[in-house]
Amino acid sequence: xxxxxxxxxxxxxxxxxxxxxxxxxxxxxxxxxxxxxxxxxxxxxxxxxxxxxxxxxxxxxxxxxxxxxxxxxxxxxxxxxxxxxxxxxxxxxxxxxxxxxxxxxxxxxxxxxxxxxxxxxxxxxxxxxxxxxxxxxxxxxxxxxxxxxxxxxxxxxxxxxxxxxxxxxxxxxxxxxxxxxxxxxxxxxxxxxxxxxxxxxxxxxxxxxxxxxxxxxxxxxxxxxxxxxxxxxxxxxxxxxxxxxxxxxxxxxxxxxxxxxxxxxxxxxxxxxxxxxxxxxxxxxxxxxxxx
Length: 292
Ligand code: SF4
Prior knowledge:
Rossmann fold, globular, single chain
């Protein structure tokens, strides 16, 4: 068991430097023309990147609860969490209720979520007293589909995710220094390189992944051992749950995330794209055929 990392002045200084001296980069539309980003995105300094790397190395063998405790000690109250109410997010909320239930948690409410997912929010609130804030796009689903002549998830899912998830998280990130997610390295080859602590270029935040080293079995063992609320769709073959138009149940032997964007090359919604993490080069926020 690792000892949680003690606060260091150098990281605090680096964070202040990042915040006060932040640069911004443009987002880029599919045509290639640069357009303003949804919000200005801070850029990490080399010192901050080095501090994050060292912290991540030291937390490599820490438990999820120890990693959460470190993140809270380091960043709270400038620490937030995004959850889609997947099993990993529910497990983190279970631990967070013990470590620091005041950490603000939000959900990217695209307007396309399953009723079961929305209902899980209320069960989490009743169990842990944690009220997950629903962050919605400016346009309702009806307005968005009218604007684009129909649902974009059928033809341009990258664009749809960008408009209804990525830009919403960019706005939600303002005022925070770090965010937490429930990604696991064994979920996909793309996530296999995820650090425990990294720099998320897309959102200009430190990204903490307390479950990066955990397996699916460890997540579900925690859920069953502690009766953690979870989405009942998991009992119907939905191993990974996102928006209803882009999610299907998987067959026996299929990959855990095979039911997401089935029929498209797309594998990620854009929140966890790996080349957006850990490096010094700023991402341009552009939608991509895979990974966004
Ligand atoms: S998952 Fe599908 S419906 Fe949801 S934002 Fe992405 S493309 Fe749109």
